[in-house]
# Entry
Amino acid sequence: MRMTASQRIDIWFRQATPIALTLLLAILSAVPIGVPGYTAVVPAYTAMAAFYWAVFRPDLQPPFALFLVGVLQDILVATPLGMTALSLMVVHGLAVSQRRAFLGKPFVLAWFGFVLIQALAAFVVWLLASILALRPMGPEPAVFQYLVTVTLFPVVAWAFVRIHRYVVR
Amino acid sequence: MARRPGSFTSVAQPVRSFWSRFAFALLLAGAFALMLLGKADILLVERFRTGVADVLAPVLEVLSRPAASVADTVAAARRLRDLRAENERLRVDNERLERWQHVARRLEAENKALRALTNFVPEPNVAFITARVIADAGGAFVRSAMINAGAEQGVRRGLAAVSGDGLVGGVVEVGGRHARILLITDLNSQIPVVVERTRDPAVLAGDNTRLPRLVYLPQNAQVLAGDRIVTSGHGGVFPPGLPIGVVTSIDEGAIKVMPYVDWNRLEYIRLLDYGLDGVVKPSGGQPPFSVMGPERSDQGRLLGLGAR
# Structure
């Protein structure tokens, strides 16, 4: 079966949506929005995206592309180069390996999975940040950021589900 | 589709599965390698960082506008409501300031005369670069802000960044069209300061919290809550006398300083160029900076202010 050019472009755009969305979230996480105290606890939007697409459409989230998005976020947010990239790799790897546990199950289970996996990723980031700074970082900001991230996950995932259903298909 | 043995697919298939299996490990190793490279302060990595950030600066600039414009609209509506009262207040203010202007003129003349008498070495002229904050990078471990002015606008590393309230931080990274400012609350920020009342020198060290600490105070220093902290100018990093904040609490070992800067409303930042890195700037016959003189357009360059 041959496809017309417009069909092919259409499919290409649909398939590029997840990673483009993650890229957009990486940029958005650096934009100042003027909410008091927001900067310190900007939720890890990209980690939510990495988890969601790793579970539901791992074929549309090539690790290398995700890695590049992570590096880009590191540059924008001025974290040590490679740190966000590594945490996204951790989330992606664990989510892909455990995805059968979440597929076709209630959403709460996926949420719980994200809570566990993101905890590990956040811990790795905290550890690396401490090692790179050559002194232990105060854990409070990392813990707050983690809590905000896992609390907001259902809201962001709701948007992902809509995009998944109507755009990516 | 039937696959012949020895065809391209049968060769490519194992290679592809090999890649997908080890891609992950490779990327993890890549991330670690990047971190090590970044830690080693290699020029190439620095160039890569600023290059990518430069490309993205316009995108961030566009994205950071909606949030700012919403806040602006709300503020504009409120101002419209209070127009009459505001006008009255300004008229009173104006009268008061005109008296001050008179006093200042007299003092300036007196000052000039006395300086001529005592052969005082004048402070260098100061140049301003005003820029908009396009990204206030946060997260749990970094306190920095990105602005929409870079080397093209004359930004250099080490310039002091101030808001209307006080010192914000210093420029640590300069690209063509953007620059990054390390905030005084960042873990890596250490600024030589003095306690204004007692002139005790100290270092203001950020620790990623909202309240940086005062360290390396002299043994006999007597700091009280409410003391103003200003830059000392030691080390030639920042010009002396820039206000930073007030001491809020003194526990054993930890003196916390509350910065004057309102971090939540950090929209515009002014970079002060005192030419402190030893580079003599061509003064081009500019008159010395005058308190009361009309603002020269070439002294303060305004960027990104648009309709204001």
User: Anything to note?
Assistant: Confidence is low (pLDDT under 50) at residues 1-6, 278-308 of chain B. Chain B touches chain A through 50 residues (CB under 8 Å). The first strand of chain B starts at residue 127 and ends at 135.
